[in-house]
Structures are given as structure tokens and as C-alpha cells.
Design brief:
With 433 residues, the protein is an all-alpha fold. The chain is 70% helix and 0% strand. The mean pLDDT is 91.
């Protein structure tokens, strides 16, 4: 498989303009096949970029740790101008005291330093040949430096959370769908996060979306929920482990209202999280499920299995509760699983919902919101079952809109099988002309 990673394209995303300029020399050496020179220069760029980022944290946030590291490094340079020990200390201090580097990124940079020493110093082998890193080694070192450091913004989790939520509030009018929001967040924030920052932002968004109920949180809950959902989708395993490790925090949720409705929507897409929550959180969730139509539809994770949840829904849909389920809920219900079996289950649930209509107006609305969007997913058996159900309920076939709606159903059946014999369904056909 070809490696489609482009060093040139990635280099355009280097955060600091000075680092970008210095990196052009690395790229020039690498492109010319001068891999030894590329590695030597790359280490210099990395060291400079770390210093630039620390100074950025001091200037923008007044960060005390960054200021302390810079002071310590400056003192080490003054104490021994010829010793390169401060370079190693710089990498280790940044990794240990800030969120700019994680453990893997630190080790990658220290490996680069060792490769730089081999390439820069007159270290020769038994044949008196200088160390010559090959193309693949140079490429890997460059890629790790770009992805692990150079392209990342110097950010602090506490500040970035405030910046992010304020930004979302201001931009909510133009970020009208998840596709636009994802592109925006990836470009401006997510691509620059390391795992520690990701977890800090996820933790904060969880509180804003699923716990707090003040006016500002209510106003921005939808956009913040979308951001949390997109962040979670980047690394579900990491965030599930975070929730499991900090169960008490993530189990502290609102006791009701829209916050819990949003949580149930979230859990419908990531059901394993429900079992990680404490019992008191599950009790609050179950109360909302029992009293909110959308939540009851989506809370499959409270049942022993997905088929059991579907059976419960069917009994509820055809019972005396007569719930009103909008199209957006049917769309969310379909998204619970992408299996063909679940798609067919949702089709059958929609049919049961429609044929349980208790008024002409209700049947009009149910066909439009539940049946019509799903009609392309019906197979012939689904069509036949729905037709049979229609014949048993005059509220569906006697209404004025049935002429148009049921012609669409018949057209779908004949589209699947032009030879399908529907003449036996006399009640169904009576109002189709």
C-alpha cells in the first residue's frame, strides 16, 4: 500500500512562522537526498519550536510552568555554553510539566536527538564511514516531528476549553450541520490536540452538556453536544477508558430536563458507556426514558438486547399511549445500528406505528414522518405487511391523503417486483383509482 502522507503538504500546517521557515531547509535537504543534513537541521528546528511554544504560553496565558522552564534552560546555557545537556532537559521538562508533548512524542524527539548526534558528529564505523541515515529513517523522523510537535498549537486545556465554547457560541449561526462543524473543529482545534488536551476538553464539554442547567448552557447545549460527539468519535476507546477511570465525575449529571435528553441521544450512539455509569446516574436516565418520547425510542441500552428494545417499542407504539414520534426521532432510531437487520426492524416499527393511527390527521402525519422517508428501504414483504395492516384500520385508508400516500406504497411494491399481485387487497385498492 502506498504511503499517501505528504511532508510538503503537512509542512504548510506548521504553527509558528519561524519554525515553518526553518523547516524549509529540512525539506530542501531531504528532497535533494541529503538525509544526514536533513536530520541535523530537523533537531535544530524542533528545539527552536519548543522554545517558541513555551514563550507563546508565557505571552498569551502567563503560564508559570512555561516561564519556569525557560528560566531553567537559560540558566543551564549560561552555566555551560558548550554543553548540549539543556536540549535534552528542554524536551523532558516540556513533556513532564506541560501538555505540549505526551510520552510517545517525547520518546520520538529523544530518538531524533540521538539520530542527530550520530549524523552531526564525526562518528565513523569500522570502515571509517560517517553515519548515513537512509531515506526511510529520515522520513519517519520528519513525520514524527511534524505530527507530534511542529503542527500543533501551544495550548493549555483550561484556556482552550473557554476559547472553544466561546468560539462555538459565536459561530453557531454558520456551523449549521455536523459536516461544517467537523471541518471547522478539525482545522482549528482537534488536529492540534494531544491526548491529554483531548481528555480535558471532553471532560469539560461533558459537564456543560450533560450536567449544568444554567441559561448559557441551555442556549449552547446543542452546539456543544455536537462538538462533544465529534470529539468522542475521534477516539471512542480513549474516552470510554477515561469515563471508567473517573466514574464519579462522569456519573454526576443533571437530574432531568434537556441535559439528560441529550445524554440519552449520546448513549444511543455509544451504548457501552451506560454500563460504566453509577447506579444513581442510571436511575436519573431511566426516569427520563419513562417520561420522554424521544428518549424512550432511543434508550436501547436500558434493555437486555437490541431485539428486546425493539419488541418493547412495538408494544408501546400499538398500545394506548399513542406517542407522537417526529421524523428526526425516526432518523436517530435508524442510526442506532447500521446492520440490515436493524434497518428492517425500524421499517416494521414504522409500519406498526402508522397502522395504529387513531385519526385521519394522525395517519396523515404518521405516513409523512415515519413511512415516506423509509419507503425506499421497504422490501416486498414489508410492503405487503403494511398493506395488510392498512386494511384493518379505516383511519389509514379512508382519509383523503390515502389516495396519494398509498399510491406511493403500491408503486414501491411494483418497483421491487412488477409482477407482484396486489389485486387481492380490495380495501387498500378501493381508494387508489
Amino acid at each position: 500500500m502506498l504511503d499517501e502522507y505528504s511532508i510538503e503538504q503537512r509542512a504548510t500546517q506548521i504553527f509558528d512562522a519561524r519554525s515553518k521557515e526553518y523547516f524549509s531547509e529540512v525539506l530542501s535537504c531531504y528532497s535533494a537526498g541529503n538525509h544526514r543534513s536533513a536530520v541535523v537541521m530537523l533537531w535544530s528546528v524542533v528545539v527552536c519550536d519548543l522554545l517558541f511554544k513555551l514563550q507563546h504560553l508565557v505571552d498569551l496565558y502567563g503560564d508559570a510552568k512555561a516561564k519556569s522552564i525557560l528560566a531553567d534552560i537559560g540558566q543551564m546555557q549560561q552555566d555551560n555554553e558548550r554543553s548540549p545537556v539543556w536540549e535534552t532537559k528542554l524536551v523532558e521538562s516540556v513533556a513532564e510539566q506541560t501538555q505540549l508533548l505526551d510520552i510517545a512524542e517525547r520518546e520520538n524527539l529523544l530518538h531524533l536527538q540521538r539520530q542527530r548526534h550520530l549524523a552531526a558528529h564525526p562518528v565513523v564505523n569500522a570502515n571509517f564511514q560517517l553515519h548515513r541515515p537512509n531515506r526511510d529513517t529520515a522520513r519517519a523522523l520528519i513525520r514524527n516531528a511534524l505530527d507530534g510537535l511542529l503542527t500543533k498549537a501551544p495550548i493549555l486545556s483550561k484556556q482552550i476549553v473557554g476559547d472553544l465554547v466561546d468560539d462555538l457560541e459565536q459561530a453557531s449561526g454558520i456551523l449549521i450541520d455536523d459536516k461544517k462543524l467537523k471541518a471547522y473543529l478539525e482545522s482549528k482545534y482537534f488536529s492540534r490536540f494531544n491526548p491529554e488536551v483531548e481528555k480535558a476538553v471532553f471532560k469539560a464539554l461533558w459537564k456543560f452538556v450533560f450536567r449544568l442547567t444554567d441559561e448559557k448552557c441551555e442556549k449552547n447545549r446543542a452546539i456543544n453536544y455536537s462538538a462533544l460527539n465529534l470529539l468522542y468519535s475521534r477516539n471512542p476507546g480513549q474516552f470510554r477508558a477515561q469515563i471508567e477511570a473517573d466514574r464519579d465525575y462522569f456519573s454526576t449529571i443533571a437530574t432531568g430536563g434537556t441535559a439528560l435528553v441529550f445524554l440519552i441521544h449520546f448513549l444511543s450512539r455509544s451504548g457501552p458507556i451506560y454500563e460504566l455509569l453509577a447506579d444513581h446516574a442510571k436511575t436519573a436516565i431511566q426516569h427520563v426514558v419513562d417520561n420522554d418520547v424521544a428518549s424512550r425510542c432511543l434508550a436501547w441500552f436500558t434493555a437486555a438486547s437490541l431485539p428486546e428494545h425493539a419488541e418493547r417499542l412495538r408494544e408501546w407504539l400499538v398500545g394506548e399511549a399513542y406517542p407522537e414520534i417526529g421524523r428526526e426521532i425516526w432518523d436517530a432510531l435508524r442510526e442506532i445500528s447500521d446492520s440490515p437487520e436493524w434497518e428492517k426492524t425500524v421499517v416494521r416499527l414504522a409500519s406498526a406505528y402508522y397502522v395504529a393511527s387513531t385519526s385521519y390527521d394522525g395517519a396523515d402525519k404518521r405516513f409523512n414522518e415515519a413511512i415516506r422517508p423509509l419507503l425506499p428501504k421497504f422490501d416486498l414483504d414489508d410492503c405487503i405487511e403494511l398493506i395488510r395492516g392498512i386494511e384493518q384500520n379505516g383511519q389509514t385508508w379512508e382519509r383523503r391523503g390515502a389516495y396519494r400516500d398509498h399510491r406511493e406504497l403500491r408503486a414501491r411494491a411494483l418497483e421491487i417486483n412488477p409482477a407482484a399481485d396486489l389485486t387481492g387487497y380490495q380495501v387498500f385498492n378501493r381508494h387508489l383509482g
